[in-house]
Amino acid sequence: MKKKIFATMLALALAASSVIPAVPLNNQSVAVEAAKKKKQPSIKKIRNAIADKYGDNYAPNVALTDAEISQYFGIKASWYSDALAEMPMISANVDTLVIVKAKNKNTKKKIKKQLLDYRNKQINETMQYPMNIPKVQASRVYVKDNYVFFITLGFIDKSLEETGTDEQLIDAYKAENKKAVDAINALFK
Asked: Degrees (nearest 5) of the Cα angle 99, 180, 66?
């Protein structure tokens, strides 16, 4: 009789334990859930938010191909999962927006380096129209999550452009570029 009671209790214990939900044994399921909660905006959504921030003053109007991104900025297509670069059709304007979604931390560093090198070249080695010099000096490379940005955008008041010191002009263009950074940060909340 004791054997029957013991066997019955053992069977009930095994049956009860089989209906308890299993806890994941690896962190992959947890990582997938975390990624779902923190979904990053698409490049198109980021670009549109930035363009909306500037309204009619968003000047880049030519989208570059992957080959042109490589040619202009030295960024290889194998380094990113998505990229967008827009420049003006007219070379007298320097407004440029580059958004690159890096594949991993290593490629993010490479992309950032290439964009910093591009920025330094624009400041130190290229001939610029005098009106563009402070705008180029105020250009910015910005990193958010696995995105890397190059930003030279906006227009300043004409009277400040005509009478301001170099420092005032650079500060005004930095404030213009901050509009893009604010639009980016608003999407990542």
From this structure: 15
DSSP string, 121-155: HHHHTS---GGGHHHHHT-EEEEETTEEEEEE---
Residues, the chain: 189
Residue 119 DSSP SS3: helix
Instruction: Determine how β-strand 80-87 pairs with β-strand 140-144.
Output: unpaired
pLDDT at position 20:
46
Give residue-wise pLDDT tens across range 128-186.
888 899 999 999 999 999 999 999 999 999 899 889 999 999 999 999 999 999 999 99
Q: Please state the pTM of the whole predicted model.
A: 0.79
For residue 79, how many other CB atoms are within 10 A of its CB?
21
Residue 50 near residue 150 (C-beta atoms within 8 A): no
Q: Distances in Å between the alpha carbon of 7 and those of 3, 10, 15, 17, 18?
A: 6, 5, 12, 15, 17
As a whole number of angstroms, the distance between CA 77 and CA 67 comes to 8
The residue whose two tokens read 């910015």 is 140
DSSP string computed for 10-63? HHHHHHHHHTSPPPPSSSHHHHHHHHHHTPPPPHHHHHHHHHHHHGGG----EE
In the chain, domain spans: 41-187
d(CA 176, CA 94): 14
